[in-house]
Design a protein that fits this description.
Elements: H1 3-22, H2 27-31, H3 41-61, H4 66-69, H5 72-75, H6 92-97, H7 103-123, H8 126-131, E1 133-135, E2 141-143, H9 144-170, H10 181-187
Antiparallel strand pairs: 1-2
Length: 189
């Protein structure tokens, strides 16, 4: 499997797993935390979308983020739009102040940034994908594959947290859960 397809497959698996984990949750379940030192599912889903938006638009395309240009900050109750309002570096005070937005609007933002990211990655040739240099928000530069490695790691961490928080509230709903692996294998057969 080519690297670009592997990365896209990882992003797809995370997205599908995350969407299964939030499916049918009430606003209260999306906003729930096990204690006052934890993130909610809504925060983690928002952070996923904001992180992808920031990397895609600011770092890869050099454009204004969808967060700003699509008026998502306003729609999700985080106006005015601030480019670095992604959840990264949030203090406990920031986390406590986070208000879960309307779930439907949040998932619309997730779908919008996902659509944009798919289109962008599909537009890259394999050599572009492997050779693109990206400005790292933490300083310096990295290659696009290294950026994707970071995103995959982060998405896996937060995807597990989302699944755990759902399970804490609803218990084990599907003992045969395979995390999307079987579905992915069937699609790629």
């Amino acid at each position: 499997m080519e690297l670009k397809l592997f990365v896209q497959s990882c992003f797809d698996q995370h997205y599908n797993s995350m969407m299964r984990a939030v499916d049918g949750l009430s606003p209260a379940e999306m906003a729930w935390t096990p204690n006052d030192q934890c993130s909610s599912i809504a925060f983690l889903v928002w952070h996923y979308a904001r992180t992808l938006d920031r990397w895609l638009y600011s770092r890869l395309k050099g454009d204004a983020q969808l967060w700003e240009s699509g008026d998502w900050a306003e729609r999700l109750g985080r106006a005015p739009a601030v480019e670095n309002d992604t959840g990264y570096g949030f203090t406990l005070k920031d986390l406590k102040a986070y208000q879960a937005p309307d779930t439907a609007a949040l998932l619309e933002y997730v779908a919008a940034i996902r659509k944009e990211s798919i289109e962008y990655f599909e537009s890259l040739s394999d050599s572009d994908f492997n050779g693109l240099i990206v400005t790292n928000p933490r300083g310096g530069t990295i290659t696009l594959p290294i950026m994707c490695q970071q995103l995959i790691w982060e998405f896996n961490q937060h995807g597990g947290q989302i699944g755990y928080l759902r399970g804490e509230q609803r218990g084990l709903e599907d003992p045969g859960y395979s995390g999307g692996l079987l579905e992915s294998l069937a699609q790629n057969a």
